[in-house]
DNA sequence: TATTGGATGATAATAATTATCATCTGAGCG
DNA sequence: CGCTCAGATGATAATTATTATCATCCAATA
């Protein structure tokens, strides 16, 4: 099973390309290209850390000492909405507990956050014979499948069925 | 690629078995078997919803109207520590942003929450030719590999290297 | 350059979780 | 069975992350 860390070189190249096209894509999407937005996407693309809002805030403040933390939150959210960024997990807003401690995976409705268990026997084998990956000692894994549930699909037009913050 | 929802029947059977052995495992682990703990694990195992603390609280209050929400939080945390429960994701405490919007996956250090990108070409094929799963319309997926990073491994004995709440 | 709708900064509000501490109780022991 | 006490709980304050509000600002367009 091939499985490898994305090298810093490839990451940086990708990031540079994305940044170059950012302003253009913003304008096409009807978004104003503000210095704050540029600074935030630049900070995000410059990092391999998958940063929190507060880390982006700290970075951006070096050049825009007056920027508001609220702007950082809002902008990161906007970037996700227009597809310029994503969140590592969509289940970050509150802890979801599971009494099933066997290895298994989850389907998550992107609208209402309903979660159901799934089994993917092949997946358990993904880490087989692999205990190291770069600087990481591997322990286990969990797949989050994104989906829309029936309920949310039917009530699609009206904006209901969601309780999350993000 | 086989991939299927865990049926309610199987889930319930598993839950019943776990519940039956719960008190015994608690005692072995040196944990007191309190009515609150029993009510909380019972509520968790009775649900297929992967509930939040507040949902467990609402359920448990039906039988223990005086229970404290703090106890529910504490107990769920304890259950995770002793391996009687888990969290659906360990990245629930704050949003982690990613400027890489290509399909890819992540290794996460369970101690310091450092995250790095990984690629698993085979994984992109997991949903291939599959657009439905039970009541869910599938969109995409993201694998969270749990690991310990080098930094945390070396400073293992002393209790440093963590900033998360959960 | 004047207009203006969306963007921002300051700050209040909300929501989830954790900390604190006085009180209580499950479990081992006689 | 009642005694003891480390650990558990309830009440509540504190903290942290995020969102809401609103007056002001400014990027984009004409
Ligand atoms: Mn599950
Ligand atoms: Mn990533
Ligand atoms: Zn849904
Ligand atoms: Zn680490």
In short:
2 copies of one chain form a homodimer. The first copy, chain A, is globular and about 50 Å long.
Topology:
The structure is a homodimer of 166-residue chains.
Chain A: E1 4-5, H1 8-28, H2 35-46, H3 53-61, H4 69-81, E2 86-87, E3 97-98, E4 105-109, E5 115-119, H5 121-124, E6 132-133, E7 136-149, H6 150-154
Parallel strand pairs in A: 4-7
Antiparallel strand pairs in A: 4-5, 6-7
The complex binds manganese (II) ion (MN) (2 copies) and zinc ion (2 copies).
Chain A binds a DNA duplex (30 and 30 nucleotides) through residues 27, 30-34, 36-37, 52-54, 66-71, 73-75, 77, 93-95, 165-166.
Keywords:
homodimer; 166 residues; alpha+beta; Arc Repressor Mutant, subunit A; 4-stranded mixed beta sheet; 6 helices; disordered C terminus; binds manganese (II) ion; binds zinc ion; DNA-binding
Superfamily (CATH H level) name of chain A = Winged helix-like DNA-binding domain superfamily/Winged helix DNA-binding domain
SSE topology string of chain A: EHHHHEEEEHEEH
What ligands can be seen in this structure? manganese (II) ion, zinc ion
Q: What is the first-to-last residue Cα distance of chain A? A: 34 Å
Question: Strand fraction band of chain A?
Answer: 15-25%
The oligomeric state is homodimer
CATH second-level architecture of chain A: Orthogonal Bundle
Largest interface, C-beta within 8 A: A-B, 81 and 81 residues
Query: How many strands in all of chain A?
Result: 7
How many structural domains are formed by the residues of chain A?
Answer: 1
Secondary structure category of chain A: alpha+beta
Mean pLDDT of chain A: 91
Count of alpha/pi helices of chain A? 6
| Fraction of residues in helix of chain A | 25-40%
């Amino acid at each position: 099973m091939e499985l490898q860390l994305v090298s810093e070189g490839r990451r940086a190249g990708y990031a540079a390309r994305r940044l170059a096209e950012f302003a253009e894509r913003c304008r096409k999407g009807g978004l104003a290209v503000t210095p704050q937005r540029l600074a935030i996407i630049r900070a995000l693309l410059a990092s391999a850390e998958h940063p929190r809002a507060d880390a982006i805030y700290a970075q951006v403040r070096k050049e825009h000492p007056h920027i508001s933390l609220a702007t950082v939150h809002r902008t990161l959210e906007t970037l996700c909405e227009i597809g310029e960024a994503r969140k590592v997990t969509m289940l970050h807003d509150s802890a979801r507990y599971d009494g099933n401690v066997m290895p298994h995976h989850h389907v998550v409705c992107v609208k209402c956050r309903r979660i159901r268990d799934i089994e993917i026997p092949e997946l358990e084998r993904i880490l087989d014979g692999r205990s190291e990956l770069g600087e990481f000692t591997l322990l286990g894994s969990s797949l989050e499948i994104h989906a829309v549930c029936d309920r949310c699909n039917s009530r699609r037009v009206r904006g209901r069925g969601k309780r999350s913050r993000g």
